[in-house]
Amino acid sequence: MQKSEQKPSKKRKTKKELRRNCIILAAAVLFVAVLCLFFASDYNKLLEPDSYYKGQQLSLGSYPQSLVSDKETLAALGELELDWKYFDDCYAGEDYYGTMKRTDCMKYADVACNASRYRAVVIEQFRPNSVLSPATAEESRQDENGFEQNKVYWFHYEPIRWTIVNPSQGLMLSRAVLDAMPFNDSFYWVDRDFDKNVFIDKELSSTKQLFTPANLYKTSSVRKWLNSGFYELAFSGEEQQDIKGTWHLTHESSESVKYGLCSLNHDKVFLPSWKDISRFQKEELNTLVRFVPVTDYARCRGTYSVLRDGKYYTWYWLSTPGDGCADVFSAYSNKDIINFDRQFFYAYSVGGIRCAACLKQSALDRLSAGGEAQ
To answer: Of the N and C termini of the chain, which has fewer Cβ atoms inside 10 Å?
Structure first.
C-alpha cells in the first residue's frame, strides 16, 4: 500500500515573534505620525498670522492724492491739451427727499507728464454735503477746504499705502481717506411713522416702487463705485491679480437684522465694518483707526476735514448700518475727541472713503519675504 502523502502544516508563530512584529508595526506608525506632524506644523507656519505681522505696510495701486504746488510742474501741466470729463457721482437736490439728481458740477482730466500721472479738477458748481441739498457754497465743504470755483487744481497720482490689520485673512486698510462719496446717491422718504428712509433706483411711481433701505450696503451706490470706478482706476491689471474676492458681513446688532439690513457681500474692495476697526487695542487706535489722514484730493472732492498737529483728518464711512433704515456707522475723529466711539451719519451725506481689501496668499508670501505686493 502506498502511504498517503501528508501536506506540510503551517508553522504557528510563537508569542515572541508576534510581540516583535507588533513592536515593529507600532514603531513604523509612530514614525509616520511624527513625520506627518512635522510637515503639518511646518505648513501651518506658512498660514500663521505671525508670518505677516499686524501693522505691516505696503504699497499697491495708485490714486490722485497730493495737490501739486511746484511751479515748474504746474507750468508744464498747463501747456498740455486736456480731455475733460464730468464726474458721474455728483448729486444735488432741493432740500427734500426724492429730489436728488446727478449734476455736472465738477470735471476732471487725466494726463501723463515727465513719467508721472496727474489729474486736473475744476469745480464749476460746489458739490453739496448731501445729495438732497442744492449745489451752493453754503451747502458744500469744498469752499471751507480752500477750493474755489472755475480754477484748475492738479493732483499727483501716488502709490496707495496700506496697513495689514488681519494677517490671517490678508485684510488691509488704506492708510488715508482717499475720496469723498455718499453712502447712497439716491434717497426717498417712504413712511414717517416708522422712520423708514429708503432709496429707489427708478423714478418714484405709484405703480412700481423698488424700495430698499438706504443704509443697506449690498445695494448701496458706494459699494458699486468701489468695485467698478475705484477698482479700475486704482489698480492695474497685474495689481488686480493680487486682490482676492472676499465675503464680509455688515450687520452690527439685532436691530439691523430686524430691519433687514444684515447682508453678506462678496467684493474685491469694500468699506471696513465696525468690527473690523473695533478689534484694535487701545494703543493702536490713534495710529490705525482714529486719526486717519485725508488726502488733498478727497478734500477737494468735498469731505469734511479738521486740522490737527499740521495734518488734516476726517471721518470715514463703515459698511455697518445703524438701527434705523437711514443711518450708517462711521469712524469719527476731531481735535477734541477723547474716547474713540462710533458715530452715525445719514446715508445721503458725502463722507470719507477709506478702502479695505484682502490680499491673496501669493502676495502675502512675497510680503513675508520682505517684498512688496507688486
So the answer is: N
CA 327, 337, 302, 358: dihedral to nearest 10 degrees? Answer: -70
Distances, alpha carbon 357 to alpha carbons 34, 61, 306, in Å? 38, 12, 26
Residue 45 gets which letter from DSSP? Answer: H
Q: What is the distance between the alpha carbons of residues 299 and 138, in angstroms, rounded to a whole number?
A: 16
Please check whether residue 292 is in contact with residue 305, taking contact to mean a CB–CB distance below 8 angstroms.
no
Q: Tell me the CA distances in angstroms from 169 to 49, 52, 118, 287, 358, one per residue in order.
A: 9, 10, 33, 21, 7
The answer to whether the CB of 297 falls within 8 A of the CB of 119 is yes
Alpha-carbon gap, residue 221 to 235, rounded angstroms? 20
Start-to-end C-alpha separation, the chain: 94
Distance CA 20, CA 16 (A): 6
CA separation for the pair 326, 287 (Å, rounded): 30
Report how many domains make up the chain.
1
Q: Is 111 exposed, middle or buried (0-12, 13-18, 19+ CB in 10 A)?
A: middle
Nearest partner of 59 among 374, 334, 296, 351, judged by Cα: 374
Reported as type and span, the H/E element at residue 353 is strand 350-353
Question: Within the chain, what is the greatest distance between any pair of CA atoms?
Answer: 129
pLDDT-derived band at 183, boundaries 50, 70, 90: very high
Query: In this structure, are residues 141 and 302 in contact, taking their beta carbons and an 8 Å threshold?
Result: yes
In the three-class reduction of DSSP (H, G, I as helix; E, B as strand; rest coil), residue 258 is classed as helix
HEC letters along 17-30: HHHHHHHHHHHHHH
Contact 274, 250 (CB under 8 A): no
Residue 86 forms part of a structural domain: no
* DSSP type of residue 125: S
Instruction: State which amino acid sits at residue 36.
Output: C
Is 73 inside a domain boundary?
Answer: no
Tell me if 253 is assigned to some domain: yes
What is the Cα–Cα distance from 217 to 62, expressed in whole angstroms? 25
Place of cell 489729474: 119
Q: Grid coordinates representing 83?
A: 480731455
- Residue 246 in any domain: the answer is yes
Structural domain of 342: 49-61+159-368
pLDDT in tens, 302-336: 999 888 888 898 889 999 887 667 788 888 765 44
